[in-house]
Amino acid sequence: MDMLKIGILGLTGVMLAIQFKGTRAEISLYMGVALCILIFAFSMEKIGSILSQILSLKKYIGGSEAWLALILKAVGITYIGDFCASVCKDAGYQAVAGQIEIFAKLSVLCFSLPVMAAVVENISTIVGG
User: Fold this and answer.
1) Alpha-carbon 3 to chain mean position
2) pLDDT for 103
């Protein structure tokens, strides 16, 4: 039901923003950004349940909170990068949006390399190499 509410909110906001796009493009952009922030605020309600699920995974990975921190940072980077790139695309700055997306991907790669190294190390320990 929440998805239906967010979908209706998004479509209504876009329809209103389209009305201003031809005459007052800056108002249309501001409406789009405000709509994104409003939907982001609604999505924050889901963060509590997501965090509780992630914390329940802690018992399966031996209590290492460093892994959970890496996962949360990667998710945060991808979400913020996508949000900012989408706003830039709506404003007509596709090149800036592309650079934000590339930076977000490289940042996630930097966070994931230690995880990948640990996985390879565990596999080599299991295999006996």
Assistant:
1) 17
2) 94
